[in-house]
């Protein structure tokens, strides 16, 4: 099932190391089927507080993300980012094709009724 890596990045300014990281990251993702869905987009906050920006990556599955993140190629460039940005990063499975949230709501209602 398609999976996603989502990063909430809070840069401390732009510099050559971050630019080098951006220039090199796609080559580390290609062997694992990764691609950017959101990158370098301006964030519009409509609820709450969101300092910084967001990056969203898509991979074929969670194992592909884990393998990419632990890969020597990515670990080599990772310090180029971590030295200059605070970040919270999560990985998560997507929903299957044809997902309908009403089915989830019905299952939750059944669980509540059985409790």
UniProtKB/TrEMBL annotation:
InterPro entries hit by this protein: Dimeric_a/b-barrel, DUF1330
Coiled-coil features, chain-numbered ranges: none
Pfam family, one: DUF1330
Domain DUF1330 intervals: 2-95
Domain of life: Bacteria
Protein's name according to its UniProt entry: DUF1330 domain-containing protein
Species: Actinoplanes aureus
């Amino acid at each position: 099932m398609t999976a996603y890596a989502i990063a909430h990045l809070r840069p401390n300014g732009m510099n050559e190391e971050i630019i080098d990281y951006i220039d090199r990251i796609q080559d580390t993702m290609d062997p694992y089927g990764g691609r950017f869905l959101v990158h370098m987009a301006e964030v519009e906050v409509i609820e709450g507080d969101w300092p910084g920006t967001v990056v969203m990556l898509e991979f074929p599955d969670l194992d592909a993300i884990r393998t990419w993140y632990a890969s020597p190629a990515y670990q080599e460039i990772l310090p180029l980012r971590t030295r200059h940005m605070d970040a919270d990063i999560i990985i998560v499975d997507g929903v299957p094709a044809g997902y309908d949230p009403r089915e989830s709501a019905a299952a939750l209602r059944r669980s509540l009724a059985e409790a």
